[in-house]
Design goal:
By secondary structure, this protein is mainly alpha-helical. It has helices spanning 14-43, 45-49, 62-83, 87-90, 92-101, 104-113, 121-130, 132-148, 151-179, 208-211, 214-227, 238-241, 248-278, 290-309, 311-332, 342-379, 384-409, 412-427, 431-453, and strands spanning 5-6, 193-197, 200-204, 230-231. Helix 1 packs antiparallel against helix 11 (214-227), helix 13 crosses helix 18 (412-427) and helix 16 (342-379) runs antiparallel to helix 17.
Length: 461
C-alpha cells in the first residue's frame, strides 16, 4: 500500500492521536490551507476586476458588472454540490491536487482576455463562470479536513482551514490593485492599457489580475500531490453518502449556512460595486478588502467559541447581531435629504463580516456534533462493533453535509450581488434587498433557537 494512503486512521483514539495522528493531520491541514486560499482568490477575482474594467477600456452597464461578480458564485455553488461527494470517492490528496491545478484555467484565461479591451462580454461571462472552480474547492477541502481531526478539535481545525482560506478574498482585493498598476511580467504579460485620472494619464495592466496567481497555483497543486494523504476508511460511494438527503438536519444546516457563509461571500462579491454606486466619490478598492479580512479572521474564533460554548448558542447570537448590522447599513445609506455616511456604512459592513465569520465557524462546528449524536443515539445499547460503525458513519455523513451545505450556502454569493443590482435597477436604491436580508436572518435565528439552542431542543449542540 502506498505511503500516501492511511490504512488505519482513528483520531478519537487518544494514544493514536498523540503518537501519530496529530502530526499527520496538521501536515495535511497546513497544505490544505494555502490551496484553499488560492481557490478563494480565483473565485473572487471578478469582485475587484469588475470595478476596473472601465479604466482598461471595457464599457458595460452597472447591471452587467453585477452579473460578472455574481456568476462565479452561481457556478461555484453548483459545482460544490458535485465536489461535496468526490473526496471519499477519489481520495483527499488526489482530488485536492487536481482541483487546485484546474484553477490555472480561469487564471490564464482572464490574463489573456483582459489584455484586449475588444474582448466580448460573452467571453468574460464564460470566464466568470470558470472562476467558480475556485468556489467549488471549498466543499471538497472542508470534507477532506473533517476526516483528519477528532470531535474535540474539529471546530478549530475546520475554522482554521476555512478561515485562513477565506483570507483569499481579502488577499485578492488588496493585492490586485497593486499588481495591475505595474508591468510585473514585462513583455511576457502583454501591453498595458491607459486611462485618465484627475487629468493625468496612467497605465494599467489588468491582465496581471489573472497571470499573477498561476505560479502559486502550480506550486500548491504539487505540494498537495506529494505531501498530503488519502484515508482508506474514508472512502465511500455516492450512494453511501446520499443518505444525507434523507436527514432533516442536513437541510436545516444548509439554510443556516446560506445565512452565514452565503452572506460572507455575497457581501465580498458585491460590496465594491455597491460602494461605487452609493458613494461615487470613494475609491471602493481601497476599502473592499477590509470586510473579507475581518470575516476570515473571525471564522476560527467562531469555531473556538463553539468548542467552548456550543455551536448553536454562538450561531444564534451571530444571526441576531447580523439583523442589527443590516439595520445599521440602512441607516448609513444615502436617502432623499441626506447624503449618508460612508464611515457608518463601512463600519456596519465590517461588523456584518465579523459576525458572518463567527457564524461560519459555529455552523461548521454544529454539523459534526449533530451527526455524531444522531448516529450514536441510533447505536445506543448495541455491541462495540456497532459503536465503531456509528463513528465511521457519522464521519462520512458529517463530511458530506459539510460539503453539501457549503455548496448550498455559496448560492448567497450569487443572490446577494444580484439582489443589489436588481434593487438598484428597479428602485434606485439597495434598500429592498437589505430588507429581504433582515427577514431571512430572522428565519435563521428562529430555526437555530427552536431546533438547537433552546432548552430541551431535540438536538442540542
Amino acid at each position: 500500500m502506498s505511503t500516501t494512503v492511511l490504512t488505519r486512521w482513528e483520531p478519537e483514539d487518544q494514544a493514536f492521536w498523540q503518537t501519530k495522528g496529530a502530526r499527520i493531520a496538521y501536515r495535511n491541514l497546513c497544505i490544505s490551507i494555502p490551496a484553499l486560499m488560492l481557490a478563494f482568490v480565483v473565485w473572487m477575482l471578478w469582485s475587484v476586476v469588475a470595478v476596473n474594467l472601465d479604466r482598461a477600456g471595457f464599457h458595460f452597464t452597472g447591471n452587467q458588472l453585477f452579473w460578472l461578480t455574481a456568476l462565479p458564485a452561481l457556478s461555484g455553488a453548483t459545482l460544490r454540490i458535485f465536489y461535496s461527494f468526490l473526496v471519499p470517492i477519489f481520495g483527499g490528496r488526489r482530488f485536492t491536487a487536481i482541483s487546485t491545478a484546474l484553477l490555472m484555467i480561469p487564471a490564464l484565461g482572464m490574463g489573456f482576455a483582459l489584455r484586449d479591451p475588444t474582448t466580448g462580454y460573452p467571453t468574460l461571462l464564460m470566464l466568470a463562470l470558470l472562476c467558480g472552480l475556485g468556489g467549488a474547492n471549498f466543499s471538497s477541502s472542508m470534507a477532506n479536513i473533517s476526516f483528519f481531526f477528532p470531535k474535540a478539535r474539529k471546530g478549530l481545525a475546520t475554522g482554521l482551514n476555512a478561515g485562513i482560506g477565506n483570507l483569499g478574498v481579502s488577499v485578492v482585493q488588496f493585492l490586485t490593485p497593486v499588481v495591475i498598476s505595474v508591468a510585473v511580467f514585462g513583455a511576457l504579460g502583454g501591453d498595458g492599457q491607459q486611462y485618465q485620472a484627475n487629468g493625468v494619464t496612467r497605465d494599467l495592466w489588468l491582465q496581471n489580475a489573472g497571470f499573477i496567481w498561476v505560479p502559486f497555483i502550480a506550486v500548491s497543486a504539487l505540494a498537495a500531490w506529494f505531501g498530503m494523504h488519502d484515508i482508506a476508511d474514508a472512502r465511500a460511494s455516492f450512494a453511501e453518502q446520499a443518505v444525507i438527503f434523507k436527514r432533516p438536519h442536513n437541510w436545516l444546516m444548509c439554510w443556516l449556512y446560506v445565512g452565514t457563509f452565503g452572506s460572507f461571500i455575497g457581501f465580498s462579491a458585491g460590496l465594491a460595486l455597491l460602494t461605487k454606486s452609493q458613494f461615487p466619490d470613494v475609491n471602493p478598492t481601497a476599502y473592499a478588502f477590509l470586510g473579507p479580512l475581518v470575516g476570515a479572521l473571525t471564522r476560527p474564533v467562531g469555531g473556538w467559541l463553539s468548542d467552548k460554548l456550543g455551536g448553536a448558542r454562538v450561531t444564534l447570537w451571530s444571526f441576531l447581531g447580523m439583523i442589527c448590522g443590516v439595520v445599521a447599513v440602512l441607516s448609513a445609506l444615502p436617502h432623499p435629504g441626506t447624503g449618508g455616511s460612508f464611515v457608518g456604512f463601512l463600519a456596519a459592513f465590517i461588523a456584518l463580516f465579523a459576525l458572518t465569520g463567527i457564524g461560519n465557524g459555529s455552523t461548521f462546528r454544529m454539523i459534526p456534533v449533530i451527526f455524531l449524536t444522531e448516529r450514536q443515539r441510533a447505536a445506543k445499547g448495541r455491541d462495540a462493533a456497532a459503536q465503531r460503525q456509528a463513528l465511521q458513519d457519522a464521519a462520512k455523513e458529517s463530511a458530506a453535509v459539510l460539503g453539501f451545505s457549503g455548496a448550498i450556502g455559496a448560492y448567497g454569493g450569487f443572490f446577494i450581488p444580484k439582489s443589489f443590482g436588481t434593487s438598484l435597477e428597479m428602485t434606485g436604491t439597495p434598500d429592498a434587498a437589505l430588507y429581504a436580508f433582515i427577514l431571512f436572518y430572522i428565519s435563521c435565528a428562529v430555526i437555530t433557537w427552536w431546533c438547537y439552542a433552546r432548552r430541551n431542543a431535540a438536538m442540542p449542540c
